[in-house]
Amino acid sequence: MDDGAVFNRNKTWCRDSILQADLERIADSELVDWERLRGKRVLVTGATGLIGSLLARGLICASVKRSLAIRVTALARNPEKGKAVLGAFLEDGLELAKGDILSPVTVDGEVDFIFHCASVTASKDFVDRPVETIQTTLKGTEHLLELAREKNVQSMVYLSSMEIYGTPDMQSYEKIPADPVQTAAVMREDTYGNIDPLKVRSSYSEGKRMAEGLCAAYAHEYGVPVKTARLAQTFGAGIPNTENRVFAQFARSILNGEDIVLHTDGSKAHCYCYTTDAVLGLLTVLLRGENGQAYNISNEETYSTIRGMAEMLILNHPLSGSRLVFDIPEDAGQYGYAPTSRMLICSEKLRKLGWKAEVGLPEMFERLMGSMQVTFESG
Fold first, then answer.
1. Is the pTM above the cut of 0.90?
2. Is residue 62 a contact partner of residue 78, using CB atoms and an 8 Å limit?
3. Cα–Cα distance for residue pair 191/185, rounded to 1 Å
4. What distance in Å separates the CA atoms of residue 111 and residue 155, rounded to the nearest whole number?
5. CA 44 to chain centre
6. What is the CA radius of gyration of the chain?
């Protein structure tokens, strides 16, 4: 091995040391059968988003460190944004492709694997732009399934969401292992709650449900090797400055020494997942999952109410001076919040494939805020 190879395998792509460490954790993981990806081409949609970008970068990092010669094609609507997010990886096997999933997706040459990560993700958009939310989900998924069929891919993963579970019936609540005093609806892949299709906020959850059905239909009728991954709310290092979901709002409040303001009573409770755990889960589903099946990706030990999460942060960061403040508007629906429920997203099915979440909620926030500080300092 020459000196150049040694240097390349220890390459630093990110000024953000936490994000760099996350990439290396993905690359060093023995949970993944990396040899199956040797010399293969992987298409990633939504490649400038949080999950898609980490997935694309993690694959390249693993390819370099393990000499796998993986090619990653990152599909993005905005090439300039794609270059800003992924430019450091272009010389190591990543290529940018301009494309909008609302139109048929064309890719020259062979494609071996697909991760379909593109989606509308801002809660307010579900209310303000419900038509676009549904069309992006359904048309986009159809176009990627057609591409998978055309290219005869080895495997495809569609990124769905815990929101497909809707609002569980109270009769489905049971005691949870982490806290025998509390009860929650334990949501497994074959249990579902209610979704009102006439509420515009349902544009996201109903769209995701239908897209999952489309994946199952393509697997059954055309033999497309597609699997569905249902992610709990996922966050970690490398979130964009524009991210405005509750975890980002809480983290910024602590970093800025500002009060954490809740626009609901904070009683909603569910699970979370750190970004690297999510990416390793997606790779596990890609390579070990069963076609036409769905898999939850969630860290059950992170189960918490929104209020409890805020209180944990304030307790862990007393020097911030942050307090918990409630400012509940008369029409909370304008924010696009999901209906209040208590759901524990069970990941037992995925754990049986060998995956396990490793990063708990306090560490998730420490890594998130450490990464955000790098952004603040450079901004």
1. yes
2. no
3. 10
4. 10
5. 13
6. 20
Cβ atoms within 10 Å of 338's Cβ, excluding its own = 20
Q: Containing H/E element for 370?
A: helix 361-378
Give the pLDDT confidence of 81-134 residue by residue, as tens digits. 999 999 999 999 999 999 999 999 999 999 999 999 999 988 889 999 999 999
Structure token digits, residue 58: 């993690």
Euclidean distance between CA atoms 63 and 70, whole angstroms: 6
Token duo for residue 264:
């609901």
Quote the CA–CA distance of 227 and 133 in Å, as a whole number. 22
The C-alpha atoms of residue 295 and residue 232 are separated, in whole angstroms, by: 11
Residue in the structure block whose two tokens are 């790098």? 374
What letter would DSSP give residue 271? E
Sheet holding 343-345, edge to edge: 173-176, 179-187, 343-345
Antiparallel, parallel or unpaired: β 155-161 and 226-231:
parallel
CA distance 290 to 298: 18
Q: Are 225 and 155 in contact (CB under 8 A)?
A: yes
Which tens digits make up the pLDDT trace of 272-297? 999 999 999 999 999 999 999 999 99
Task: Give CB contacts under 8 A, 24+ apart, made by 166-169.
Answer: 166/192, 166/193, 166/194, 166/195, 166/205, 166/339, 167/193, 167/194, 167/195, 167/339, 167/341, 168/193, 168/194, 168/341, 168/343, 169/193, 169/194
Encoding tokens for residue 197?
């299709």
Q: Which amino acid is at 219?
A: A
User: Measured between alpha carbons, how far is residue 174 from residues 97, 147, 242, 312 in Å?
Assistant: 47, 42, 37, 24
Angstrom distance (rounded) from CA 28 to CA 45: 24
Structure tokens at 94: 């990543």
Other Cβ atoms less than 10 A from the Cβ of 227: the count is 23
